[in-house]
Amino acid sequence: MQILFLFLNILNSMEDLAKKLDEDLDKFMQDFAAKKEKSRGGESFNFSEWCKEIDQHPAFIKELKTGPDGQYSAEIQALQALKYDKQSNSHKVSIRDDVTYQKNISSSNDQQHVFPLVILYPEYCQTDFIRECPDDELFGDVLYEVFEQPAEWDKEEHKFRASNVLLCMSLKSKDGQNPIVREILPNVHSLGEVLKWPDVVISEGVPALQIYTKEWFSSNMKLIDKKKRIFIKNLLFLIRKFFEDVYGQFRGESKNIFYKLSKTCLNIF
């Protein structure tokens, strides 16, 4: 009930915030127009002329028209090349091909494939990268050196060691909003096996492994499929994350209602 009351207070305050933002935007536009007029030596701002310039800009143009020579402008041709030129986009085409290829990868003993692997540490917003990760080696073997030699940001506490972490890979969620992950067993799974999982998420053709400490994971993730070991972020985590974002945005504004509200809620959660 207390949580509901807090959310209602937030919603009631949104109107005042929206009104203030509108007023600030109007003031900004007026000040901008005044500065523009001053820089032009007193010449007034011509809104119609400005709209005409915007309509002719390649980013906003609604109808493509050729010039007297029958050719499009250099800006339009550049945009066309950026979007349609196969040679200019060959690296992206090959990446997309790799995604399909990786999902149907074969991990037979006589044919080994090697992939780049991004390592994410969401708790600390840190990343790492393995340039060549064999598809048929167990994650425990692949990550041995990563866990034995802590990164600079983890040297003091060395939380991310083999006995204190959980490995996961993102899956596409059904609702498209709440992110879900599936646990990887380092002494059971290889990259080749993981890439065969249904709905596994691969960004730009590069798989991304997520590593969490067991303590954080048990507090913030909820098991939704015991057999496949699939997890989702629990409600309390999402609520706390929301108030952390609000608190960070208004930090230092002690009289701001959102600052006070978020600080109170963080103490509750």
UniProtKB/TrEMBL annotation:
Listed GO CC annotations: cytosol; nucleus
CDD domains tied to this protein: CTWD_Cns1-like
Keywords: Coiled coil, Repeat, TPR repeat
Entry annotated with the keyword RNA-binding: no
Domain (Cns1/TTC4 wheel) ranges: 110-212
A family per Pfam: Wheel
Coiled coil: 11-38
GO biological process, one term: protein folding
Molecular function via GO: Hsp70 protein binding; Hsp90 protein binding
Protein name from the UniProt record: Cns1/TTC4 wheel domain-containing protein
